[in-house]
């Protein structure tokens, strides 16, 4: 995937001019601004540290366009996870990102409401092998699958509202460009 940084920055500038009060959903968080891109050495260090190989579309985006910032919902998180809240820090658990993503179809197995069932439902094992990309609000998260049969796809983690873990977008590029081009000036 070849990204066109100038075109994306121009589009974000047009959106910022059209929405100077940041009234569109999520824009108060990212303000239509991208963080600077990362160096190859920074991305390679992350991959080595966590034992992963990032899907090419996302990897190229953070190298050429920006390390998070403007994007769908409240924007895209930084690769180093520095802008994630402590409660959303499962990405940094040892072995979490390197594990295989466990799903190939939507999953939502609600328990009986007991503390044990809740603990099982919210077990990070249900989202192993995926990277938290974006917060949609109300605890819903968008995750990029790093390993397994669904590598490169995006999934919604809606367990915060008992909505399970479901397929969300076929690729990072599709997700990002649909958002960028779907915003009206």
Describe this entry's structure for a reader.
The protein has 185 residues and is an alpha+beta fold. It has one domain (5-182): SMI1/KNR4-like (3-Layer(aba) Sandwich). The protein has helices at 5-18, 27-30, 40-50, 56-64, 115-121, 172-182, and strands at 130-137, 140-145, 154-157, 165-169. Strand 1 and strand 2 form a beta hairpin. The longest helix has 14 residues, at 5-18. The mean pLDDT is 94.
Quick structural overview:
The chain is of the alpha+beta class. It is built from six helices and four strands. Strands 1-2-3-4 form a four-stranded antiparallel sheet.
How much is the average pLDDT? Answer: 94
Q: Per CATH, what is the topology? A: SMI1/KNR4-like
Number of helices: 6
Rg calculated over all Cα atoms = 17 Å
The helix content is: 25-40%
- CATH superfamily assignment? SMI1/KNR4-like
Shape: globular
- Counting copies of identical and different chains, the oligomeric state is single chain
Give the H and E element order. HHHHHEEEEH
- Per CATH, the architecture is 3-Layer(aba) Sandwich
Query: How many β-strand runs?
Result: 4
Strand ordering within the main sheet: 1-2-3-4
- The N- to C-terminal Cα distance equals 26 Å
Mind summarizing the main beta sheet?
Answer: 4 strands, antiparallel
Broad CATH class: Alpha Beta
Structural class by secondary-structure content = alpha+beta
Integer count of domains: 1
């Amino acid at each position: 995937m070849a990204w066109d940084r100038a075109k994306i920055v121009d589009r974000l500038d047009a959106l910022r001019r059209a929405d100077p009060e940041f009234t569109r959903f999520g824009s108060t968080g990212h303000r239509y601004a991208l963080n600077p891109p990362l160096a190859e050495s920074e991305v390679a260090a992350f991959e080595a540290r966590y034992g992963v190989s990032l899907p090419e579309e996302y990897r190229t985006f953070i190298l050429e366009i920006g390390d998070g910032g403007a994007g769908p919902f409240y924007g895209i998180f930084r690769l180093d996870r520095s802008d994630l809240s402590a409660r959303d820090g499962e990405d940094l658990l040892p072995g979490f990102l390197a594990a295989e993503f466990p799903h190939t179809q939507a999953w939502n197995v609600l328990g009986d409401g007991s503390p044990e069932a809740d603990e099982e439902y919210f077990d990070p094992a249900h989202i192993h092998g995926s990277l938290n990309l974006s917060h949609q609000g109300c605890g819903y998260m968008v995750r990029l699958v790093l390993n397994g049969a669904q590598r490169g796809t995006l999934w919604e983690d809606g367990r915060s509202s008992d909505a399970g873990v479901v397929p969300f977008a076929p690729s990072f590029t599709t997700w990002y460009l649909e958002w960028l081009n779907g915003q009206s000036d």
